[in-house]
Amino acid sequence: HPKTATPVPSFAITIREVLSVDKQVQIKQRMAKQFVAKESVKVSDGAAVKRSKSNGDMSVKKVKVEAMDPSKASSAVVKKEKKDKFELTYRSRCVCVFQELDGVDVLIFTLYVQEYGEMCAEPNRGRVYVSYLDSVAYFQPKKFRVLMHQQVILGFLDDAKMRGYHTAHIWSCPPLKGDDYIFFCKPDNQKIPKAARLRSWYSKLLQGAKKEGLVYNISNLYAEYYMKRKTALELPYFEGDYWPRLAEDLIKQVEDKTKPPTKPSQRKSSDSNAATAAAASSDYSTIPPDLSVPATTSTKHQSGKHKGEVNMDPIMQKLKAILEPQKEDFFVVDLHPRCHKCNTGVINRPYWILKTLVPSPDGINDVIEALKKAKSAAVKSSMLPRHYHHYYCASCYDSSKNTLQSRVDASIVGAKKAQDIYAAVQAANSDPMTFNYAGHDILDVKYELQLTSSVSSLLLEGEPPRPNLALEPDTDELMPCEIFDTREAFLMYCQNNHCQFDQIRRSKHSSMMVLYHLFNQGTTGFTFTCHKCSMTLTSGKRWNCSICLNFNLCEGCRAKTKHEHPLHAFQIVSIPQPKHKTSAEIDMHNMEGSSILLDTASSSRKKNAKKRPGPKKGKGKGGHAGSSKKAKMDASSQPPDDPALATPAMPFP
């Protein structure tokens, strides 16, 4: 009966973005020097091309660098350091998932991401990075918990794709035992996935997204950068990622290896020459050539030394030894088609697809796989049948149209041969793996290829191609948040306020605290100091910079100070005090009253001592004073019977 049937429980879910601020990657010293040197080379090359065009000469000539006066070297370095500044800015976002359990919203999932938009410099431009994610196992129904996590991540990737970002990066790294990423004190029965299980979880998630057409290609950092012979400066540099942690050490190792030994005559140089040399060596342009330039122009001795290496960049070679064992943990996901020839993302423009068709019937695929093993070792690997799924932009397709079409025509002929051989295998009623292919021509057997054109999914039907500037400007309002500013800030907030998630009742209380401070910014109890006047901010507004570390200004200094980054206003709310005092506060108040009474009695005693004739000053005063002090302590240690004797005893003169 409908009245007696148990109603189906409903679990309301709220997905809320709680943080959206601009931040800056904290680039370490050696890596910053490498990036600045690369940018300076680009600027100088562009200036040389511009000068050659203005002179009517289209050839780019090498610019001769004249020696600088040693007396002006140090000042030039200081000016250059101020002028040359390399920044990687990004939009930091935090997404939280709440679920209503027993009428209370409970925080169950948190995701931190980084978005490097059009204003960011290379190599980070147009990329998104899944920084951290964490959850607690209270989602209901439990069987849909994994699905909820996946849908939140896929929703973010889909949103990033629609806004023009071309690549997503994910580092699969589970926390160590006892460590917390975001949530403080998880349930004891919640298991932490191992590295292999977490990697498999991400792989299944991305493979499903690829089948749905959300992503186009799934690779890893090792295959995309080391195997494709890219330099270390082309690796994306994300805040908190694995590569920035290693970059400084690897660059230092290469610099120490390539640094020439110091001659004895150089050690005896004067202090002025040494200072000049140090200033010149600190110049961003004086970088060992093999740190930023591939070693294709190296000597025969160096090429022989690194024989067999795919990537000749010295830093990438050192990174290979560390990265190769765990290369599957670093996912590189193409959100848009990437041209196979020029390696650029195709966004808001038409493109062409060269892909292998699935053989029909299925037995043809078994025949082709058997033919691969039957071919002799003398046959080149490029002649073996392979699967293709390549994308080409409009310009690359126009330049190689004839080659691609001839490859498609040859594949049709090769696929027809495969069908004939399959018919012979079927007629002999034999297994494709054991069939004798000696009497058949197997050199030109191939999979059938198809070359088709397509249009970016961001374009509406009939809409013309958009310009190359595909990234949409981020028009979202900045939404700073004190407790979710970083994952460390939220973790510290939970630790300081005892917001634990190890039990459902504690999770409810912690979530209520988080929601209160989320909607009442400035009530967290943190104290801030003005960066300009060093005054503690207790009222009014504080103006915070999300890019600079611990930068806050009061309202007065904000009007007088010009800052290079945007400032966000936080209302400082005084924390309300309880109306009734606790027993501990009452005891503290009584102790303060007693101390005031003691000070009053002591001052009156000193006044009376001045009026009375005292003993002459002598060496015996110390012992007398000590005994009186002891008597005072003994008298005060026993409770007096008369309330009038509750005051300390007055010492006799």
From TrEMBL:
Concerning SUPFAM superfamilies, the annotation shows: RING/U-box
Q: Does the keyword Ribonucleoprotein apply?
A: no
Enzyme nomenclature, EC number: 2.3.1.48
Q: Which reaction does it catalyse?
A: L-lysyl-[protein] + acetyl-CoA = N(6)-acetyl-L-lysyl-[protein] + CoA + H(+)
- Location in or out of the cell: Nucleus
Q: Where are the annotated segments for Disordered?
A: 255-311, 598-653
Q: A GO biological process this protein is involved in? A: positive regulation of transcription by RNA polymerase II
Q: Where is the ZZ-type domain?
A: 525-578
> Which UniProt key words apply to this protein?
Chromatin regulator, Metal-binding, Nucleus, Transcription, Transcription regulation, Transferase, Zinc, Zinc-finger
Q: Which protein is depicted?
A: histone acetyltransferase
Identify the species of origin. Answer: Aphanomyces astaci (Crayfish plague agent)
